[in-house]
Design goal:
With about 375 residues, the protein is mostly helical. The protein has a domain at about 1-50 and about 245-364. Helix content is about 45%, strand content about 0%. It has helices at about 15, 20-30, 40-50, 50-60, 80-85, 100-105, 145-155, 160-175, 190-195, 200-210, 215, 220-235, 260-265, 275-290, 315-330, 340-350, and strands at about 110, 110-115, 115, 140. The strands form 2 sheets. It has a two-stranded antiparallel ribbon. Strands 3-4 form a two-stranded antiparallel sheet. Helix 2 (about 20-30) packs parallel to helix 15 and helix 13 crosses helix 14 (about 275-290). It is globular and about 60 Å long. It starts with 12 loop residues before the first helix and ends in a 14-residue tail after the last helix.
Length: about 375
């Protein structure tokens, strides 16, 4: 396997550590492998929790899903914002999130976390379209939203019966390559023809399975990957998901189906290391870096204007961190070395110079 630092043209670590609180914290813990008890990490976490942007994001989801979304890829939806907080390293005990967590776990259908809104139905012939009441107390589950809530809760550190049951139920949905499919009327005909699951549903399931040790290399993960593999080989749009310009984009948050999201999830699995789709994603990332190994967003959500990952004119520390994390994940082998090696490697990464033969990857 590659030494992930050799895939970089330059060392972005000092720049990442001088950027914003969320990038600095995750760089220290994920790229430099520092412990939560390390003084620098403790200070970075304190800065993260006191940041106005982070506090504002937490406040925005206090009402949870007060109004039903009109589309699943709306970045304003509460569960996407909860996921961002989880991605940044926030825990459920931080920022007075307990009330939000209670609301997120209040509506459960068949052991899965539900979202407000009605399941789309085929319009009946001759009937006029009637707008639904978006504030009605109607909830449903689906493979492209319910898993996001489960993932966010798990990453936030929530370990209760509801989360355990949600993961078990998700397992039961992926016992073959057809997986958990929404079967909405506008995609049902293609499913009947192809008998393959939905790419975004498989990706979101893999996102969760990657975090649970006993599921990470399991048959459930392998089945969840099948729609993604099929989609690449299929070579055209599958259930409205394509692999064109909109797919190949450095875009965050992970609201919908794109290459950065795929790369971040798929590189977590050892059984996928030799898959062509994964190698394709890694090549795309390494070939997209600037001379100083920084990455610019190529598409943004205007709802997050002001955040570093929503400015296409400047390199984004967070996007750059994600790309570095992806490269590191891809390089990981079972670590059989001593802690002393890890410490020396952390120092080496801080002082990395392009092409330096002395650098030892902490993941080898």
């Amino acid at each position: 396997m590659m030494n992930w630092t050799n895939e970089l043209k330059d060392n972005p670590i000092p720049w990442l550590l001088e950027s914003n609180p969320w990038t600095k914290y995750r760089t220290l813990t994920d790229l430099l492998d520092l412990s939560e008890t390390d003084g620098e990490v403790i200070n970075a976490k304190s800065d993260l929790l006191s940041d106005e942007n982070i506090i504002g994001l937490a406040n925005e989801i206090k009402d949870w899903i007060a109004v039903a979304p009109t589309r699943n890829n709306d970045p304003k939806i509460s569960y996407f914002k909860l996921r961002i907080l989880a991605d940044f390293g926030i825990k459920h005990t931080n920022l007075n999130l307990s009330d939000t967590i209670n609301k997120a776990t209040q509506h459960i259908i068949d052991n899965l976390f539900a979202v407000r809104g009605q399941i789309p139905e085929r319009p009946k012939k001759g009937e006029k379209f009637k707008k639904p009441d978006l504030t009605a107390d109607v909830w449903h589950v689906s493979p492209c939203n319910s898993p996001i809530i489960t993932y966010a809760l798990y990453e936030l550190g929530v370990r209760n019966v509801q989360v355990e049951k949600a993961i078990e139920e998700l397992k039961s949905k992926w016992i073959d390559k057809r997986g958990w499919f929404c079967h909405f009327f506008f995609v049902e005909s293609q499913f009947k023809k192809l008998q393959i699951g939905c790419p975004i549903a498989g990706l979101m399931a893999l996102d969760i399975f990657s975090k649970v040790p006993e599921l990470k290399e399991s048959e459930y993960s392998k089945f969840a990957f099948e729609p993604l593999k099929f989609h690449k080989d299929y070579g055209k749009t599958l259930y409205y998901f394509g692999r064109s310009k909109k797919f190949w984009t450095f875009k965050y948050p992970f609201v919908w189906y794109n290459a950065l999201y795929l790369a971040d999830v798929l590189t977590m699995f050892n059984f996928l290391k030799d898959e062509p789709v994964v190698r394709e994603l890694i090549d795309w990332i390494t070939n997209s870096q600037s001379l100083d190994s920084r990455f610019k967003p190529t598409s943004v959500f205007m709802n997050y204007k002001g955040w570093d990952f929503s400015n296409k004119k400047e390199p984004s520390p967070w996007i750059t961190y994600l790309c570095c994390r992806i490269l590191k994940q891809y390089s990981v082998l079972p670590d059989k070395r001593s802690p002393s090696h890890e410490i020396s490697d952390q120092n080496a990464m801080r002082n990395l110079q392009p092409g330096s033969p002395e650098i030892i990857d902490s993941t080898i």
